[in-house]
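Entry for the shared binder. Reason: the reviewer on the internal report wants the predicted structure included alongside the sequence.
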Amino acid sequence: MLCSWRVRLKLLLATITLAVLLSWLYLFVGSLEYGRFLLLPPCLGEQPSRAVEREALASQVRRVEEENQQLRIQLGQVQAEGSDGSPQGGASAEDGPPIGGERNNRTACPKQRMVHKCELLHVAIVCAGHNASRDVVTLVKSILFHRKNPLHFHFITDSVAHQILQTLFQSWMVPSIHVSFYNADDLKAGTLPPLHPPHFLTQLGTWRPEVSWIPNKHYSGIYGLMKLTLTKALPSNLSKVIVLDTDITFATDIAELWAVFGKFSEKQVIGLVENQSDWYLGNLWKNHKPWPALGRGFNTGVILLLLDRLRRLGWEQMWRLTAERELMSMLSTSLADQDIFNAVIKQNPALVYRLPCFWNVQLSDHTRSEQCYTEVSDLKVIHWNSPKKLRVKNKHVEFFRNLYLTFLEYDGNLLRRELFGCASLPSPPSDQLQQALEELDEDDPCYDFRRQHLTQHRVHLFFLQYEFLALPNPTDVTLVAQLSMDRLQMLEAICKHWAGPISLALYMSDAEAQQFLRYAQASEVLSARRNVAYHIVYKEGQFYPINLLRNVALANTQTPYVFLTDIDFLPMYGLYDYLRNSIQQLELPHRKAALIVPAFETLHYRLTFPKSKAELLSMLDMGSLYTFRYHVWPKGHAPTDYAKWRTATVPYRVAWQPDFEPYVVVRRDCPKYDQRFVGFGWNKVSHIMELDAQEYELLVLPNAFMIHMPHAPSFDISKFRLSAAYRGCLQTLREEFHQDLSRRYGAAALKYLTAERNL
């Protein structure tokens, strides 16, 4: 603290001195002779010439400017070392305890290499599964919020996390961010041969599984050991990296932590914070026997690794031999990689650089984390390393929880900010999008529609646990739909009506996505299902991107067939089995066809759902059910031929007609929805038209039905009804769609334009 104020005081005095000297110089060489006369009275005797005076003062100004610049550098170093004046790196391994002790060593002003604002910082994270993929987003948000440098994230992932995070970062399009993925399955590959103890590993020639041979009791499982393999997993030309757990939250710029590498001695290769619990002291319970550790041991939630030095030291051989030796008596790890890291450091204490504990404030029960901070400004990194996570017991847990929730619900779109003064990393998709946006005419009456079409939405696939495995059943079918927050109440009902797999795209803000998560986890119906895939498409723009949502849900199905519906419809009981049987009976794998499920509606919020076609016809005759939209948009479903359906016992073919928009079952590789249609109008009509252009047969199923449930009108349909400009733009988009259809399908598409004109 004293160091910081001393430098600030020097800088202030130097600034004042410089200001006075500049004033003198101005008065000497400027045109203010009267000012010069006042400042240099003639009673001083013979005065030097003006040229001599000017040269002397200029020399003095240069000298003070140089001193001023040096003081600014010192002040910048002090600020980078921490707001409380403490050095970033803390004490070395020989400097004493890092908890509480580092505050006694703050009067010195150690030299520290600063991080250039355009220096690329490398961060490695192990991430596996749906839940960890969701948690890591909050960590990334906290880093992006504070960062001022380009970043390269290195993710060691399983196939699930790879798909989720790759899609997320590609759609997020954050400037100056690069992402690389490494297959965790390759690192854990191999199984220890029967009867072979661990020490045989080094004698098995080329067969060398990485970590799968290590028994681990920690809840992180096999992936909790992956950090041991980073010297091999990461590129050989990568010299250093910050390694983070997924349950970390940053409260400062990660460049401050990166700068600590400059404080390592020649022998130090690993930067760690001391463990803040008593785990490695072995006194938590009777017969508690932890792995060997230096003192309290170290926590591996935040690690600084000098990869090039570790490789030269033979890190892989070092940790393997240590693990083999300790497993002879310990039999398994309790805290995954942390046990092995500590065992290595116990044998080689000179390898470790002790980070101050504010770089890893560990919020597990009964820790000494409160000794790491006295003020909010002391906090750098918060680590939710208890299995209880946000429910952990801590004196200030409410503050920490609020900080975490801030980033959890923070709008990720706001983090798409440029780093000025740094050359951006190459990003062809981003460049193409920017060029397309620049080509738009802002005076175009339909500019907002066209811009919405080009909007790049963040997409988080498989937001919740998804365990459905597509069986080799060539007739299996997935229900595909999209929704927003105001239709959330339909989910439980649909799950009760449809037992098969479901793929849903949900249009939500970051905060709404967390509300949905809590809703789904609290629902007995939804939490019991593992074959429902929820894909979050984050809100951006003024229109509902309905066809983008449909395409996201459609693209992430795993069955050969899909049932394309809307969230407001309840399928008849048993429809899943009926559709699979129909696909088989109609030999759909060998023909190009779309199966139509007739749509009905009720105006009553409470409905005794019909259990059969006979019951539905009775309700239709009694007036409690209607054919869908017969009173406001009859031509949308009239081609289904409801009169014929009443008595039909076998599927029958119908012809395409203008504005026909039935709900269909088709192959998964069907045409995508046209994403130019946003909001209300023509979003399904255009899709059915393209199916017909591709010569799909339209077959109505005789014993299938679905019922639309009533709801308040959407915001987009209200705009359609009230705005002539909205309807005019929709007509423009329809005409452009017809032109595109003609280019793709030639003369066969002329009938659609002719039919439109006849209307």
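Summary line for the report: Residues 20-48, 78-111, 190-207 have pLDDT under 50 and may be disordered.
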